[in-house]
Amino acid sequence: MSPMPKIYVAGHRGMVGSAIVRTLLGQGVRSQDIITRTHAELDLTNQAEVRAFFAAERPEQVYLAAARVGGIHANNTYPAEFIYDNLMIEANVVDAAFRAGVRKLLFLGSSCIYPKLAPQPIAEGALLTGTLEPTNEPYAVAKIAGIKLCESYNRQYGVDYRSVMPTNLYGPGDNYHPENSHVIPALIRRFHEAKSANVPVVTVWGSGTPMREFLYVDDMAAASVHVMNLDKSRYDQHTQPMLSHINVGCGYDITIRELAETVARVTGFSGKIEFDASKPDGTPRKLMDSSRLNALGWQAKVSLEEGLSAAYRDFVEIQLPRS
Predict the structure, then answer these.
(1) Would you please indicate which residues are annotated as catalytic (active-site) residues?
(2) Is the C or the N end of the chain the one with fewer CB within 10 Å?
(3) Interatomic CA distance for residues 259 and 283, integer angstroms
(4) Distance separating alpha carbons of residues 62 and 89, to the nearest angstrom
(5) Global pTM?
(6) Eight-class DSSP state of 44
(7) Residue 205 known to bind ligand
């Protein structure tokens, strides 16, 4: 590797990809050494386009942060797109990277790869030990395939393709769509609109009892760059050829009720919060065991309330731009 490697960030306009770009620039990587393409410029589901791009650009490192993502509603409504698009993106990028001589690649997965009722906190070894959560199974299967793609290319070709599995992410650049967003951006939008319209009650999907872990996206980006640049011998000490992925989390979880109350406080909503138990809860608890990554020298830094405040500021700037 050269002192200034040529780095391709796939999905640079997304929440995670844009955070990785911010982190790289903040750590001294020159903007001219970071390669990006919009979807209009490069369709990652198109094998021919992806191969041509890699053959022309020849990056030395690849962050594969591009994906089709969404919340429970989106996963339930568009299962075909979620499995097809994600399988095509990761297969095309990983294979084209190998063909172009890329030695180092980081694949970003999701904590939904683990069984619905996995022992808590969830260790990397829980992969493929039980039934997945039905509401996002197609997406989870695609992400599992991405891990196995990296492992298989490592085994067969001796490349260094790593995988990180983040817990639930939030922060600047999130998707605030009223139906297709994840829980934090959905709550931020709902509470903000309720406050603005003086609505006295906000209804939250589910019972409020499931527990979730949340990680600020810039923490995730810092973890990704940290894992990418770890010495291979040190990384290999904490992984195995058939268990090469590493969890990324903050180390603690809260109930959805506690989350809703915190978002209400951050957004300034002072009305009543009700829960609609007729709506699906999803997995009852999902806390990641991030001890492997902690042993490799990384810890989350941003507290939930601090991160939610930053996310809300970002939302207001996007939705209510100043004149």
Answers:
(1) 139
(2) C
(3) 16
(4) 13
(5) 0.92
(6) T
(7) yes
Residue with tokens 């650049």: 173
pLDDT 10s digits, 94-128: 999 999 999 999 999 999 999 988 999 999 999 99
Is 109 annotated in some ligand binding site? yes
Give Cβ neighbours of residue 185 (< 8 Å, ≥ 6 apart). Answer: 170, 174, 175, 176, 311, 315
Strand ranges of the sheet holding 34-35, from the earlier edge strand across to the other edge:
34-35, 7-10, 61-64, 104-108, 160-166, 245-248
* pLDDT at residue 265, as a whole number: 97
Tokens 């999701």 sit at which residue? 110
Alpha-carbon distance of 65 to 27, in angstroms, equals 19
Does 291 show up as a binding residue in the annotation? no
Longest dimension (CA), the chain: 60
How do strand 201-205 and strand 168-170 relate by DSSP bridges?
Answer: unpaired
* Domains and their CATH numbers in the chain: 7-174+214-250+286-302 (3.40.50.720)
Tokens of 65: 């942060």
